[in-house]
Amino acid sequence: MNQHIVIIGSGFAGLWSALSAARLLVQHQREDITVTMLAPQPVLTMRPRLYEANPAALDFPLSRLLEACGVRFIGGAATKIDTQNQCIHYLPSAEKIEKTLPFTRVILASGSVLNRNNIPGAQEFAFDINDIDSARRLEDHLHTLAAQPASPGRDTVVICGGGLTGVELALELPSRLRKLFGEQALPRIIVVDSGKRIGAAFSEELGNIIATASQCQSVEWRSECRVTHIDSHGVELSDGSNIACFTSVITAGVNASPLAGQINAKRDAQGRLFVNDMLCVEGESSVYAAGDIAHAHCDDSGHTALMSCQHAIPMGKFAGYNAVASLLHISPLPYRQPDYVTCVDLGEWGAVYTETWQQRVCMTRQEAKQLKQTITHELIAPPQDRTQAFSLADPLAQFVEMTQE
After folding, report:
1. Max CA-CA distance within the chain?
2. Weakly modelled stretches of the chain, pLDDT under 70
3. pLDDT score for 50
4. How confident is the model at residue 116, as a pLDDT?
5. What pLDDT score was predicted for residue 398?
């Protein structure tokens, strides 16, 4: 009897789960186990680059790669996960009638969503760059503004949140807006963040670099503050002040995909499912999770994997391997990723690269910028063919570290 491994999601965790599972099945010459990816489209969105202009170029097609690796693709959106009967209810793309898909093992890799509900007006008036469609809407909006006359509202952008996404978007926008509005334009970028200092989400050393780059590009920070209301003309802050702007962007408040809520298992404050070292959901032997939807320990020091492709890629490799291993009755591999690096794009100033969980600064300016571009344009791009895919999908192979060569 055939067995089925279903992977929900085509992001970094989903893609590498599929490739890792397919690789192990080929190694063991098992054709009685099917690997299926379920996602709206067979594309990988380069989410770490959605702060850039031209987001339409950041979708990478996966159909040929999946077919070459023996992974079946089904276009659709999962609506219900029935763990008792081991089947997934899904709505096929461009159809209105739900279908079901049986599974022996399922890997949840459906990512995360942005929570806009905590700011009045955000749902109607704010933008975000959490996915390709949202980034395109922001891009279209900025192009529309370029046809309007200069004004404080047109030329001001408020970034709601000073984490990684907020920093990279804020530092990219000055040059991006000058290209749209004209080199004589004076765009005003304001980051509103609840932290006590600039870059409070990072180490003090890294925060100081972000502060320097912000000052050099006239990016303002409103620390110890938050946005309390948004409309089409501006934002209101918790200190009672108002900022006239036609563009506000939400970059904070990310939660795990709502699919996690359908699993009867423990979840953290962000809705992520607690998983064991094999990335199997606690209490659900047929369900694995990887990427933004998983609360996983990545070392023996208590560090938890972050919602980033840096953690999603290796987690996918381990999840795919272990889901297959459980069916082949071979030893699983505990997920471990002790090394942690950060590489933050800081616009025209350059970038900053850090190592360790303490975020020790190792590289800055243009040297770090070149590394950032190597990471986002080459190292995390999808494999070109089956040979490369299976070579990189080995969980025990040294992951391409984002370190200085």
Report:
1. 69
2. 1, 398-405
3. 95
4. 83
5. 57
pLDDT, tens digit (0-9, with 9 covering 90-100), for 316-366: 999 999 999 999 999 999 999 999 999 999 999 999 999 999 999 999 999
What was the pLDDT predicted at 404?
Answer: 32
Q: For residue 180, which amino acid is it?
A: L
SS (H, E, C) the chain: CCEEEEEECCCHHHHHHHHHHHHHHHHCCCCCEEEEEEECCCEEECHHHCCCCCHHHHEEECHHHHHHCCCEEEEEEEEEEECCCCEEEEEECCCCCCEEEECCEEEECCCEEECCCCCCCHHHHCEECCCHHHHHHHHHHHHHHHCCCCCHHHHEEEEECCCHHHHHHHHHHHHHHHHHHCCCCCCEEEEECCCCCCCCCCCHHHHHHHHHHHHHCCEEEECCCCEEEEECCEEEECCCCEEECCEEEECCCEEECHHHHHCCCCECCCCCEEECCCCEECCCCCEEECHHHEECECCCCCCECCCCHHHHHHHHHHHHHHHHHHHHCCCCCCCCCCCCEEEEECHHHCEEEEECCCCEEEEEHHHHHHHHHHHHHHHCCCCCCHHHHHHHCCCCCCCCCCCCC
Q: Which two tokens stand for residue 310?
A: 């840096």
For residues 12 and 223, give the distance between their C-alpha atoms in angstroms, rounded to a whole number. 33
Q: Give the pLDDT confidence score for residue 23 in this predicted structure.
A: 98
**294 and 282 in contact (C-beta within 8 Å)?**
no
How many alpha carbons lie under 13 Å from residue 303 in its C-beta half-sphere?
17
Distances, alpha carbon 172 to alpha carbons 324, 361, 390, in Å: 42, 21, 35
pLDDT recorded at residue 402? 36
* pLDDT score at 291: 97
